[in-house]
UniProtKB/TrEMBL annotation:
<dbReference type="InterPro" id="IPR001708">
    <property type="entry name" value="YidC/ALB3/OXA1/COX18"/>
</dbReference>
<feature type="domain" description="Membrane insertase YidC/Oxa/ALB C-terminal">
    <location>
        <begin position="377"/>
        <end position="555"/>
    </location>
</feature>
<keyword id="KW-0653">Protein transport</keyword>
<feature type="transmembrane region" description="Helical">
    <location>
        <begin position="377"/>
        <end position="398"/>
    </location>
</feature>
<dbReference type="InterPro" id="IPR019998">
    <property type="entry name" value="Membr_insert_YidC"/>
</dbReference>
<protein>
    <recommendedName>
        <fullName>Membrane protein insertase YidC</fullName>
    </recommendedName>
</protein>
<keyword id="KW-1133">Transmembrane helix</keyword>
<dbReference type="Pfam" id="PF14849">
    <property type="entry name" value="YidC_periplas"/>
</dbReference>
<dbReference type="GO" id="GO:0051205">
    <property type="term" value="P:protein insertion into membrane"/>
</dbReference>
<keyword id="KW-0472">Membrane</keyword>
<comment type="similarity">
    <text>Belongs to the OXA1/ALB3/YidC family. Type 1 subfamily.</text>
</comment>
<feature type="domain" description="Membrane insertase YidC N-terminal">
    <location>
        <begin position="80"/>
        <end position="366"/>
    </location>
</feature>
<keyword id="KW-0143">Chaperone</keyword>
<dbReference type="InterPro" id="IPR038221">
    <property type="entry name" value="YidC_periplasmic_sf"/>
</dbReference>
<feature type="transmembrane region" description="Helical">
    <location>
        <begin position="442"/>
        <end position="463"/>
    </location>
</feature>
<dbReference type="Pfam" id="PF02096">
    <property type="entry name" value="60KD_IMP"/>
</dbReference>
<feature type="transmembrane region" description="Helical">
    <location>
        <begin position="7"/>
        <end position="26"/>
    </location>
</feature>
């Protein structure tokens, strides 16, 4: 067969587009083209939808609407209590003790850099709903996220101490529930403690639920080429990490409405460990329930454009006067692996590197150590590119020598094509004999590109997933290496470098193929308009180094025949 570098390059280009498309599909929660879809969750009769109070962010504030409240009671006047630490500002509503807003003070908004990044939030105007709710079920009227709580007096700012606590109390149906939120200095983890006391005259068997409610929309600023998975995720030691999908919950709810069945879903295997979360680009909110306590994990559609993932834990039977305590953690912050690993096993998996995780993790490890020395992620990418180039130097040198030989025999190849243009079989046979006689490996010039392609794709996911690079500047106009180049300078430089590389390569014998080769830099550069500038920086530096290496090898290290020509 007449195999040459241009054909292989087009194959690489096509494969790259397919792989990038597949990765984007996976990142948005759609099934991979190369793997079967994950098993769907099974029905859970234990976690009945009717037992869980409605999770709507606009629940009525009147006491008459609350479970177990007398109809003649005065309307409950809720208030938002704001707790401020060195890392975030949190609003907790006394109606239900629900976290309704969480602002990260160390991270700027991805769309408006004059504002801080907000995770939990409720906005009736835009329909945004992102809440952390807890409460009790198991008997009518037990305190839940629609019950009015009373806040105990105390500091609301971190101040000089290392922690600040918010204590909320509610009593209903003979049960007193005390929620204690503990906020610590330098920690994105909020300790959530529930103390349940039976203040009635009869035994009770309450169950504690923890849930995250989301509107199912991607964060503002999410684009086609800069997209990431947004949706429920969970982890248990038995079944490991799983992504769920809002679309699946919507379909299941629609099917349940037709059949009259319950739409609440359950994890296939009951667990006594793990966590559940809502993941989005660069950030995550994850509940870590009390360990070694049996739980039911559920997902459900709450109402129009609202979905929930949570757990229900049995607290046992409480005799009159008895108290049981439950300790959980709520992490709400950046997807930094070092921080996530300290919260719970497997939580670092929400930092999604795609199917090339085995390559992407070492890449980030190396880049992180380089950054500790250089202190700038742009120069870190450049230094990493140089390291990669040195690692592949022998392979690249062999490829460029092969291309230099191909340049020398191009006239002979054209003569063969003219001689056998009516007989493709003999043309291919004669071409392969020429390659053999001249000791040319027709794939030699493509091997460096093929080998580096997984590194290129893995680096794409490193830049996509690493919140450390989000908002990181390089020099001048590059103020965010995780965002596209605002002035398109790097994509243009890439196109120029690709054009020079094409000119240094052996010219195709086919004029049409030659025009297509000149078109490739333009096609890639247009695609790079939408890619993270850090990725384009890597490829520009790689091309510049390749041009220098190819020029030196072509002039000084070419075979003797090339040197004399």
């Amino acid at each position: 067969m007449d195999i040459n570098k241009r054909t292989i390059l087009w194959i690489v280009f096509a494969v790259s587009l397919v792989v990038l498309w597949n990765n984007w599909m996976v990142s948005t929660g759609k099934p991979s083209m190369f793997a079967p879809a994950p098993a769907q969750t099974a029905k859970a009769p234990e976690a009945k939808k009717s037992e869980l109070p409605a999770a709507s962010a606009t629940a009525a504030a009147g006491a008459a609407a609350l479970p177990g409240a007398p109809a003649a009671a005065e309307p409950f006047k809720s208030e938002r209590i704001t707790v401020t630490t060195d890392l975030f500002r949190v609003d907790v509503d006394t109606l239900g003790g629900t976290i309704k807003r969480l602002e990260l003070l160390k991270f700027k908004d991805g769309v408006d850099p004059t504002k801080n990044q907000v995770l939990f939030d409720v906005d009736a105007g835009t329909g945004k709903t992102y809440l952390a709710q807890t409460g009790l079920i198991g008997a009518p009227g037990l305190p839940n996220h629609q019950t009015g709580f009373v806040a105990k007096p105390g500091p609301r700012m971190l101040g000089d101490g290392n922690q600040v606590q918010l204590v909320l109390e509610a009593e209903s149906a003979g049960v007193k529930l005390t929620k204690t939120f503990t906020f610590k200095r330098g920690d994105y983890t909020i300790d959530v403690r529930h103390d349940v006391t039976n203040v009635g005259a009869a035994p009770v068997k309450p169950e504690l639920y923890l849930q995250l409610v989301h509107d199912g929309n991607k964060p503002a600023g999410d684009s086609y080429f800069n997209s990431s998975y947004t949706g429920p995720t969970l982890y248990t030691a038995e079944d490991h990490y799983k992504k769920l999908k809002f679309e699946t919950l919507e379909k299941e709810a629609a099917e349940a409405a037709k059949t009259g069945k319950d739409a609440v879903q359950d994890h296939p295997t009951k667990a006594d460990n793990g966590w559940f979360a809502i993941s989005q680009h660069f950030f995550v909110s994850a509940f870590v329930p009390q360990d070694k306590l049996a739980r039911t994990i559920f997902t459900k559609k709450v109402t129009t454009n609202q979905y929930a993932i949570g757990t229900i834990q049995q607290l046992g039977t409480l005799a009159p006067g008895a108290t049981v305590s439950n300790d959980a953690k709520l992490y709400s912050g950046p997807q930094q692996a070092k921080l996530l690993e300290q919260v719970s096993p497997g939580l670092e998996l929400v930092k999604d590197y795609g199917w090339l995780t085995i390559i992407a993790k070492p890449i980030f490890w190396v880049m992180d150590h380089i950054h500790q020395v250089l202190g700038n992620w742009g120069w870190t990418i450049i230094a990493f590119t140089i390291l990669i180039k040195l690692a592949f130097f022998p392979l690249s040198a062999a490829g460029y020598r092969s291309m230099a030989k191909v340049k020398l025999v191009t006239p002979k190849m054209q003569a063969i094509r003219e001689r056998y243009k009516g007989d493709p079989a003999k043309m291919n046979q004669a071409t392969m004999e020429l390659y053999k006689a001249e000791k040319i490996n027709p794939l030699g010039g493509c091997l460096p590109i093929l080998v580096q392609m997984p590194v290129f794709i893995a680096l794409y996911w490193v830049l996509q997933a690493s919140v450390e690079i989000r908002g990181a500047p390089w020099i001048g106009w590059i103020t965010n290496l995780a965002a596209p180049d605002p002035w398109y300078i790097l994509p243009v430089l890439y196109a120029i470098s690709m054009f020079i590389t094409t000119k240094l390569n052996p010219a195709p014998a086919d004029p049409m193929q030659a025009k297509m080769m000149l078109f490739m830099p333009l096609a890639f550069s247009v695609m790079f308009f939408f890619f993270p500038s850090g990725l384009v920086l890597y490829w520009v530096v790689n091309n510049v180094l390749s041009i220098g290496q190819q020029y030196v090898i072509s002039k000084k290290f070419a075979p003797p025949a090339a040197a004399n020509s």
